DNA sequence: TTGAAAGCGCTAACAG
DNA sequence: CTGTTAGCGCTTTCAA
């Protein structure tokens, strides 16, 4: 069931059949229709490999994420996939598990023109691999910002600013001793959040106590463990700012297990606005990360680039420019910090 | 940078180069090494299309899921991907959003040999498409069980039995008026859960009140709304069995919003054992669905079939048999039902 | 507007 | 063990 069968059946050459698929306007409407009918009748679909071998296009883009279990990334995926689907593209979701080896293997596969475009998470991809991507000129956009002079379009937010805002919110609610549970500092997001936290404290002339900054694995369990350590401290903090909601859920569990009330005894601030954040008890106050929108935007940027590549061969300087799109972060206030009674107590009625 | 370049550089024919890739043992170790070195030096990777065009193999399997935001499916995905990766395969994650149109488009693409294997969720795929898959003889395994005489290997659980167990657990804890919030009954899982619920009540000669069986959208919000309706009923139930944890989270929220305590005023039983179930307040008692294991198993079954296809051309009747693997369901008891005081009250101390 | 034919890069008979 | 060569199915010049 190949192009020759169709051609034979239609009494034309394979070239004509090929043309109705690739340049329909170059074929007499009448024969075009006839050939289309025959295709349907024979249930013919062009062989993808043969097509790719000639065109070097696959109709698929790839999204490389570090952890498929994290809702942040699946929501991004949803956004990405949605616009890809509208454009008639398929999305290859690659899950690297933050493993250098898997990462490299995926990129290896993706790079050699096996996909038409790539979206990846900045800071979770080895710089060497990023360089490799640049070199191949594969259209690629990154989600997040990262040090260095990278030639990628990107959609990013300001984790530093988000963390600063979050911590400031805590301060404005009267908390003076504020701890921070960091994520894996190997990742720039976590490092920036830590800096934002520091900045906020500094701006308010609050003590930055190294004992109140502790790291954890970026899981529910990691948050649980870290919070336990913090709370059992001889001198526990009044509030904790936690690098992500996932860990915050674990922390909340830990704090409650210790018999402490949130936010009366200790306040908790998260980061991400995970879709579960409104359902834990107490509902988590957190920083809203517009993940779905990030996915949508990244995908749009990618298609912009891909289009620019195909359409204007006359190097249109305008379209060749990489775009950097900034999405602001806001605080989503719920119940896990800034308890009214507490505030009153602190400020003296 | 193609196979000819490598061949030229090594002073051998393309056949030899091809052989070191496909049948290394047919090449003198010495030249083999030399060619491998040259490949590395030239950073050569075989063209995927050309390869596929010859072999009709792509080294990718696909997993078709109905909803990427549902942790059930991402955990399955994780399991699937893990074994695929170990086998040197890539996983194409396709998210149909339960849309017939997307489904069809994906299958269309996948079917024509563009992937080497397929895993899909039974009951979420149009039977017509399933027939199509069967006809193409693409190795495929389904997760779940479904009516009909399908020729697929499968890994499945017994939703009916799980629901029956869950409801019985509620009954054994003394609840007599038990409501059920169903999922979308279009999906067989939901229908079976409903049946299991009915069966349990019948076995205990308990009333099956149609007013206590209500459906909802399979989201947190859907659960919220359904629970509200149930609770505001003139004659609310003592317990609710909910078709999935996701909806149960919403229901818990709704019940608490109504000023009712769980489980003192009303008990809640979920289904899935979503990874958040142990973190909501109260911790949710639910049916443990071994999703990760389902993913692993499905993937193994798929590779069994793929191997059988390539290795034994001498139709080994044994390996050609489809396998059906059953994974049992168990109740994960936590705090959202069977409160001690309540039980005492019911049974009279 | 159409057809003939030359590849795209690779694999696997087949022959040596 | 290695080389020659005929495809795999399609697209696209180039001629007609």
What does this structure look like?
Two copies of one chain form a homodimer. With 349 residues, chain A is α/β, with parallel strands linked by helices. Chain A has three domains: 1-37, 434 Repressor (Amino-terminal Domain), CATH 1.10.260; 57-157 and 291-318, Rossmann fold; 159-289 and 330-346, 3-Layer(aba) Sandwich (Rossmann fold). Helix content of chain A is 47%, strand content 14%. Chain A is built from 14 helices and twelve strands. Chain A has helices spanning 3-10, 14-22, 29-42, 48-55, 71-86, 100-111, 127-136, 159-172, 188-203, 220-231, 245-257, 291-310, 317-320, 340-347, and strands at residues 60-65, 90-95, 117-121, 140-143, 153-156, 178-182, 213-215, 239-242, 267-269, 286-288, 324-326, 330-332. In chain A, the strands form three sheets. Chain A has a six-stranded parallel beta sheet, sandwiched between helices. In chain A, strand 1 (60-65), helix 5 (71-86) and strand 2 (90-95) form a beta-alpha-beta unit. The first copy, chain A, is elongated and about 90 Å long. The N and C termini of chain A lie far apart (82 Å). In chain A, 46% of the residues are buried. Mean pLDDT of chain A is 89; it is low at 312-318. Chain A binds chain B through residues 45, 47-50, 52-53, 56, 68-69, 71, 74-75, 77-78, 81, 85, 90-95, 102, 105-106, 108-109, 111-114, 220, 249-250, 252-253, 256, 275-276, 278-281, and chain B through 45, 47-50, 52-53, 56, 68-69, 71, 74-75, 77-78, 81, 85, 90-95, 102, 105-106, 108-109, 112-114, 220, 249-250, 252-253, 256, 275-276, 278-281. The structure holds a DNA duplex (16 and 16 nucleotides).
